[in-house]
Structures are given as structure tokens and as C-alpha cells.
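Notes from the 1:1 (GR / supervisor)

We went over the backlog. Supervisor wanted to see one worked example end to end before approving the batch request, so GR pasted a single chain during the call. The sequence is below; no edits were made to it. Supervisor asked that the structure be written out right there so they could see what the output format looks like.
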Amino acid sequence: MTLAPSNIRECPACKKPVEQLVLNSGNTFGAVQWSDGFLAAPMLPEFPRLGRCPHCATLFWVPEATLVGDCWPPDIAASQWPGAKTVEGPTAEEFLSAIPLCGGDKEKELFVRLRSWWRSNDRFRKGVADAPPFSETERGNLEELAEALDDAHPHHTVMRAEIARELGQFEQCLALLERDFGEELMYVVGTIRDRALDLDPKVMELK
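Structure output shown during the call:
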């Protein structure tokens, strides 16, 4: 993995400089795929598109913030731009609070709802034995996300099935997986189906 020069942007709220890390190249060596679609790839990180200002905690769309310059190497941003701090990633709750920032843009709303789901599942990914189940807010997000997905896309149907499984709606999950998904999705579909038959709602690592 290598980084490109960082973008230095202006927080739209407090006007202080924030650093947006930029990926130059990466790879999927050592990556782990999860049943909710999350890819844990140490050498291919996803830097915040929706970020939290490290100065005032305002959420904003990072690529849309005013670009004031760049910096190389990234670890000296603060010396070149006094006070600059790296943009932070939102929590599951913060992603959902940013729905109004989508302005009715369906692609943006899908983005924040999906990332909120991923953040909600992080506690299960860490293998915490007594991790609490989904809250009502988290369940509501999954229901809204499922509604936003389009069954014309096979990957979306698989995602809807995974949402149903994680919500404990096993019959609905199995019904969504009855269609032919082709060889590309055969393993994922079979794994989700097997877990649904076992009445297991937890997100799982795809071997």
C-alpha cells in the first residue's frame, strides 16, 4: 500500500484545516470478506468519504469540502498546515444522523446506511461474546436499507437476504435466495443459506 499526497480541506463548519488521506495504490493481500459485504483489507483501506471534523466534530462530505492545498509526505501535514488534523470516520450512530446531509441523494443514503450497518457489525466481528443485539435504531436502518436495494441487481438481492438473516427473518432470507445467482455468487449464497437453515443471525467471515 502506498499513499498519494494528502488533500488539505477546510471544514465547512469551523473553517479549520483537515487532512484527507489519499490512497495511491493497494492490494487485497490478507483481506477478509464478511457476509455483510464488508472487506477488511489492511493494504486497501477506505478513507472517509463522509467524515467527522477532528476539530469541531461536524459531519461533512469530505470530497465536497473546499480544497486549500495538498501535503507530502502525509505525516507532516500539521507542520505545513498549522493545526491540520486527519479526518475521522463516523460511528454507526453518526452515519445515521447524517441522513439529512444526503439531501435526497439515493446513492449517498445507500452509502451511509450500508456503512452504518458495517459499523454496527464491528462488535460481532471482534468476537465479543456478550455483544448486545441490534438496537431498534439499528434494526430500523437495516429495514430501510433493504427497501432501498434493487432486486434487478443480484448482489443487492444477496445483500437483502443477508439483512433478513441478521434480523432473524430466516424464511424471508431463504425465499430471497431461491433464484439462480450464477457461479460468481454461488459460495456466498450457499453460506448464507446454510446459516439461515441453522437459524444463525450473526455476521460471518467468508472463508
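Supervisor's comment: DSSP finds seven helices and nine strands in the chain.
Batch request approved.
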